[in-house]
Amino acid sequence: MESRLRSGTTWHCCGKWCFRSGDNTPERSLRSTLCRLRGREYRRRRLYCFGLLPEATADTHTYVGQNWDWAEPVADTLIVTEHCREQGPDHLAVTEAGIVGGKMGVNEHGVGLVVNGLVSPNDGDDPFRKPFHVRCWEVLEAERFDNALEPVVASPHACSSNFVIGHADGEVIDVEASPDRTGYVYPRNGVLTHANHFITDGFESRMERQLPDTLYRARRLQRTLDQHSGDLDAESIESGLSDHFGRPSSICRHVNEDAHPQERTQTNASIIIDLTDQTLRVTCGPPCENTYSTYRVGGVT
């Protein structure tokens, strides 16, 4: 018998579109139809992630977050989903309308996830391995930190991806995954940043051939956050995420009008997740031009 999506999922619109799944939608059908990750999508994805341990923050909370850069029209599909579960933890997630689960989020146990794309030579050679979006869903279903790591380290991947997984009790680990192996990055002085190229040994990284700006974005954010380490608050984090060095190919990315229309990208959302308070703050569009809306597991704030 097919399992079916339970009621209790609320969709909060950040873009123009909003959807709510019906109670009788076959979950297996949705997963097979909507869970996808194609290597060619990464050409337009310029994302980076960060994690902050309690020793780096003014309120001694644990944070993960990112700027989510992609094709300009995709901004209109952005939603925040609130999953209220009968079995398994409640959680919030940011995703695109039409994608089952979520990409970035936090659950009621203080487990949080942000992600970004990587490219390596064997991407797509085994396309029927567990989909990327299923792994994200499983991370947000975890009740313990080891359970959250398992979906991204226990089985081979179809395509390269980067996962920053954190826990409210003061732990953040970055997992770089290619189809053949995984590598691990840990915070330095309580701060972790990652862009779109592999930084651990043993990988042949290829994203920088398409996106050379990946080579400076994470390093620049790392320096900015390090300058305020021990006293990082909302203002200093938001300031780092709004940096315009190298504009339009900056941390806060803006559309390059000289690019082909299909290659025009921008920061579609800026996301800051407080794992201690289980709150998710998100903009719809570049953070320099838009305010953050706040959502809390168990109710919108």
Automatic annotation (TrEMBL):
Positions of the Peptidase C45 hydrolase domain: 61-286
| A GO term for molecular function | acyltransferase activity
Q: Which UniProt keywords apply?
A: Acyltransferase, Transferase
Positions the record marks as coiled coil are none
**One Pfam match:** AAT
The record's annotation in PANTHER family points to: BETA-ALANYL-DOPAMINE_CARCININE HYDROLASE, PEPTIDASE C45
Q: What is this protein called?
A: C45 family autoproteolytic acyltransferase/hydrolase
Q: What organism does this protein naturally occur in?
A: Halocatena marina
